[in-house]
Design a protein that fits this description.
By secondary structure, this protein is α+β, with helices and mostly antiparallel strands. It is 34% helix and 18% strand. It is built from three helices and two strands, in the order αββαα. A two-stranded antiparallel sheet has the order 1-2. A hairpin with a 2-residue loop joins strand 1 and strand 2. The longest helix is centred in the last third of the chain and has 16 residues. The N and C termini lie far apart (68 Å).
C-alpha cells in the first residue's frame, strides 16, 4: 500500500497505478467522501450524460416500448 505526501496546500498525488485502474485523468474531477472514518475518492465523469449512461437501462428496447405506449394511448382515446 503506497504512502503519499500531503502538501502545505492539502494536495495529494494519487499513485499512477490507481489512476490507471480507476480511470482518473488530469485534468479531471473526483468526489471525496467520508465513510466509516475513512476518506473515499470516487471518479466523477467529465460529462454527466456519459457518466450516467445505462443507469436507467430498460430490459425492453426503446422502439418496442414506444410502440406499446402508442398502442395504450390509442386504446385510451377509443374509450
Amino acid at each position: 500500500m503506497p504512502i503519499v505526501r500531503i502538501t502545505a496546500k492539502g494536495q495529494v498525488v494519487i499513485p499512477a497505478e490507481f489512476r490507471r485502474k480507476h480511470g482518473l485523468q488530469a485534468p479531471g474531477r473526483a468526489l471525496i467522501t467520508e465513510r466509516d472514518g475513512q476518506l473515499v475518492i470516487t471518479p466523477v465523469a467529465s460529462d454527466p450524460v456519459t457518466g450516467s449512461r445505462g443507469i436507467l437501462r430498460s430490459k425492453t428496447p426503446l422502439r418496442e416500448a414506444q410502440k406499446r405506449h402508442r398502442e395504450e394511448e390509442i386504446g385510451l382515446e377509443d374509450r
